[in-house]
User: What shape does this take?
Amino acid sequence: MSVLDILVYPDERLRQLSGPVTAFDGALQGKIDSLEETRLAGPGAVGIAAPQTGWFERVLIVDVSGRKKTASHGHLILVNPEITEWEGYAMGREGCLSVPDYTGNVVRAEKIHLDGLDRDGNPLSFDMEGFEARAIQHELDHLDGLLFLDRLVSRRQDLFQRKNYK
Amino acid sequence: MLTLVGKDQPGIVAKVTSALFAAGCNLGETSMIRLGDNFTVMMLVQSADGDTQLREALAPVLKALSLVLHVDPVEAGMHKRPVPDVCILVHGADRTGIVSQVTSYAADAGLNILDLESDVGGTEAEPIYILQIEGVAAQGVDAIRNALTPLQADGVKVEVRPIETMIG
Assistant: This one.
């Protein structure tokens, strides 16, 4: 295991589309462990996606269980994740290990249904909402070469718009 | 730090920033916003030249647009943005003292303001005041909420909520 270097915007590699994981072997396990170590080394990061470390496969880690009053499925390692349902939307503030010293408002789905695989290739399925759903959407964007900067909305339009209109 | 104020008209930002670019200046953080009928610009500008050269470079644009310029030397360097963790929203019938009361009570409860915007809306006869603040709650969000609750009694709506920043 080792802490990996984080790619920092405007590094073009962050724009790369990541491909699906096909082999659930020892090499994958080692890379996942390093990815987690890298996330923990990042200040306050609840999530990380493989391409942020220059590893262009569809793997992400999210863990919002350390936050008070936050609905959570615990520590999640997700391989080949896919959002299959979206519901509602909410504005929230995001930052990114790959975009140091900047935070901004982003609109995300309030609730999602997520399918994927665990680190051994077993199927996983979750209904998520709120902060956890936001984290998943942020990390999944990385797998598609997108950053929260691509989805910024004005800081000045935060007012009165936090409620979810369905 | 450059501060520019003048009557609003289309093209101010483009003309001012073009003049700065032509003078070899580098822009940092800026706030450019209309207040009443005025356009106000505050910019952190990096310039190899001194104050005098900067003023000379901007002089034609300032004259053409009737802008007033103020220059303050400030410490250079990469900024480190504190992350706001509390948002305060206040609105109600316009009356004097709202901002003063809200910010004084909040400051006593540990608020460091990073961003404050206020606006007057409604009708001429019954104006309403809208105030938005973002900041860092050194003593926690609840301390600020508790400190501002008494203001509700005066017919002012006060909402204090955490800003949760998802870092991923």
